[in-house]
């Protein structure tokens, strides 16, 4: 596989916080235009890994590149990515529209394109009627939607999403899932961390399960589920339970 087909690459990526080894050793090679589902129990190191890949946390050791740019080149990587963290970075005192306008300026999106894209996404996420309200008046789901639009407004090569459907009603969650599938079909790469397994089952081309700071299982969802013995058809939940209780003994 040639390197330019790899959007997210990590080699022996590690992070230590004092005595805590948050990420022991992570290797990744995520192909462009694919959706990578990142699973793992609470405390496995998923957020820390995403923070290293998005340049927000400096790795203690190892190497990571986003579309060929090393994460030590923070500006270079930030130009190539969008990131929706668990708690979307929005300003309570701005309206939803102002927040997105502000972000579009930060990202150097020309004003006319910005207006067009903001209007289209607000409409799609059923937020157009509330775009003039201050974010402090928004529900959790509305904040989540603004955070998501903010992450993809500049049409980044690589989109990192931490629980993108959390707090969303089923219709909004469907809109988000369809948008993720579209982004991937257009050639964007999506790195998706969530505990909602049906979301991963539907969207991910490849799934990686992180446990105690290491990837203990990785592969296409169908390939992983085929390897788990179960009385009925296996699901990703069976895979998750097998590899995270027994550290990969059931799935090699
Ligand atoms: N800033 C920090 N300082 C000290 N320890 C930290 C810090 N951030 C994370 N950790 C520790 O690193 C480990 C991994 O945490 P992380 O948040 O990456 O897990 P996670 O897989 O995202 O969990 P969850 O699914 O609960 O969000 C945990 O033991 C956590 O306590």
Structural features, described:
Keywords: ATP-binding, Nucleotide-binding, Transport. This is ABC transporter ATP-binding protein. GO terms for molecular function: ATP binding; ATP hydrolysis activity. It comes from Natrinema longum. With 252 residues, the protein is an alpha/beta fold. It has one domain: P-loop containing nucleotide triphosphate hydrolases (Rossmann fold). It contains 9 helices and 10 strands. It has helices at residues 46-53, 74-80, 96-106, 111-124, 140-152, 170-185, 197-203, 221-226, 236-245, and strands at 6-17, 20-31, 35-39, 61-66, 69-70, 81-84, 158-162, 189-193, 206-211, 214-219. A hairpin with a 2-residue loop joins strand 4 (61-66) and strand 5 (69-70). Helix 3 (96-106) crosses helix 4 and helix 3 runs parallel beside helix 5 (140-152). The chain starts with 5 loop residues before the first strand and ends in a 7-residue tail after the last helix. Adenosine-5'-triphosphate is lined by residues 17, 20, 22, 40, 42-48.
Task: Describe the structure concisely for a colleague.
This protein has 252 residues and is an alpha/beta fold.
| Count of spatially separate domains | 1
Helix segment tally: 9
What is the residue-mean pLDDT, rounded to a whole number?
91
What is the ordering of alpha helices and beta strands? Answer: EEEHEEHEHHHEHEHEEHH
Radius of gyration: 18 Å
- Biggest pleated sheet: 6 strands, mixed
Write out the strand line-up for the largest beta sheet, numbering strands in chain order: 6-7-8-3-9-10
The CATH topology label is Rossmann fold
Supply the CATH superfamily name.
P-loop containing nucleotide triphosphate hydrolases
Keywords: ATP-binding, Nucleotide-binding, Transport
Protein name: ABC transporter ATP-binding protein
InterPro entries: AAA+_ATPase, ABC_transporter-like_ATP-bd, ABC_transporter-like_CS, ABC_Transporter_VariousFunc, P-loop_NTPase
GO molecular function: ATP binding; ATP hydrolysis activity
